[in-house]
Amino acid sequence: MVKMILDLDTGVDDALAIAYACASAEVDLIGITGTYGNVLMETGLKNASQLLDLFGRGEVPVYPGLDHASDKEDFEVQEVSALIHGKNGLGEVDLGDRPVKQGSENAVDFILKAAKDYGKDLKIVATGPMTNLAAAMDKDFDSLAQVGEIVIMGGALTVCGNVSPFAEANISQDPAAADKLFRSGLPVTMVGLDVTLRTLLTYKETQIWRDLGTEAGEKMADIVDYYIKSYEVTSPHLKGCALHDPLAVAVAVQEDLVDCLPLAMKVETEGESRGRTIGDNDRLNDPNPSVRVAVAVDVDRFLNEFMTRLTQHFKEH
Q1: Would you call 106 helix, strand, or coil by DSSP?
Q2: In 3-state terms, what secondary structure has residue 42?
Q3: Which of 176, 224, 249, 295 has CA 20 to 30 A from 155's CA?
Q4: Smallest Cα–Cα separation from 313: which of 214, 235, 221, 224?
Q5: Residue 278 has pLDDT above 90, yes or no
Q6: What would the pLDDT profile of 194-211 be if each residue is shown by its tens digit?
Q7: Cα 176 to Cα 85, 122, 163, distances in angstroms
């Protein structure tokens, strides 16, 4: 069983990532750390805690992380994020007065303690900006280096970005933090737009959840339907919504879902191409690159796993 930490800016696809982790027998979810992006860090933390309760995992603690980029002093949610995820991050769906159980530590200290306690048995799945991970590297690199793997949802190597021709949204929030991670030598698997845009959910699947008649099924159907509607505005050619963040969790559980290219990576931090994830020319001959970039995905297998796991879990909650 994999010990897992989810580092999230909990919007809709992060909610699906939480659901995938909760629905996977291979995963021991030991905590969620909060970051900013789709919503303010505090909002995302509340969302994560209430979703855990909805999914029957209310005992899993959430930990507050950094609330702005490493090279900035504050953060404001972009209008496009509110369009895609709703102002509350969950498609304007109200989860009621479910409790918010916040851990006593901050996110960075929790990550470092878990890395020391569990070592190679720990996987960190980061689906927002890499700010918490960069801060953990700065504070105690040797402890963080004990983790088995860091899987990130972010970047675009073989396709265009989604916030600029060059940049993907998570990386663009804090390019310096992502660049630090890519250059660190830590074992990183990048699950970017190259593969996530191929994994799509439609109203057909959300209707399956709605028909379960359970609270979790109905709430998640409402949340994801909002997300699908936003894609009809922003990316009508896709004919569905991309399963960005849950694919990253799935890859942490079953790495053979994707084909990866080992490559020494960097992030461009200045100029027009700020946020671009690309191979580092200075390290192209590195015989053992620490980053694996997902460039192909078994779409049918992933979607089958996704629907089977989540539908069964929602059926029970």
Answers
A1: coil
A2: helix
A3: 224
A4: 214
A5: yes
A6: 999 999 999 999 999 999
A7: 25, 25, 17
DSSP string, 56-71: T-TTS-EE----S-TT
Q: Is 9 a catalytic residue?
A: yes
CA–CA separation, 72 and 35 (whole Å): 14
Mean pLDDT for all residues in the chain: 96
- The SS3 assignment for 296 reads strand
In a 3-state reduction of DSSP, which class is residue 197?
A: coil
CA dihedral for 217, 17, 224, 63, sign (positive or negative): positive
**What is the structure's pLDDT at 95?**
95
Beta strands in the chain (DSSP E): 2-8, 27-34, 62-63, 122-126, 149-153, 188-191, 200-201, 241-242, 258-262, 265-267, 277-279, 291-297
Domains in the chain: ranges and CATH? 2-316 (3.90.245.10)
Res 315: pLDDT:
96
Is 244 in contact with 127 (CB distance < 8 Å)?
yes
Query: Which of 7, 9, 13, 245 is the catalytic position?
Result: 9
The reply to whether 85 belongs to the active site is no
The single-letter code of the amino acid at 312 is Q
pLDDT of residue 100: 84
Q: Which of 302, 310, 303 minimizes the C-alpha distance to 219?
A: 310
Question: For residues 277 and 133, what is the distance between their CA atoms, to the nearest angstrom?
Answer: 17
CB-based contacts of 309, cutoff 8 Å, min separation 6: 20, 23, 24
Rounded mean pLDDT, 291-297 = 98
DSSP 231-283: HHHH-GGGSSEE-HHHHHHHHHH-GGGEEEEE--EEE--SSTTTT-EEE-GGG
d(CA 240, CA 225): 10
Q: How far is CA 312 from the centre of its chain?
A: 22
Over residues 217-251, the pLDDT tens digits come to: 999 999 999 999 999 999 999 899 999 999 999 99
C-alpha span between 54 and 70 (Å, rounded): 32
Catalytic residue, candidates 7, 53, 194, 244? 244
Distance, CA of 161 to CA of 154 (rounded, Å): 10
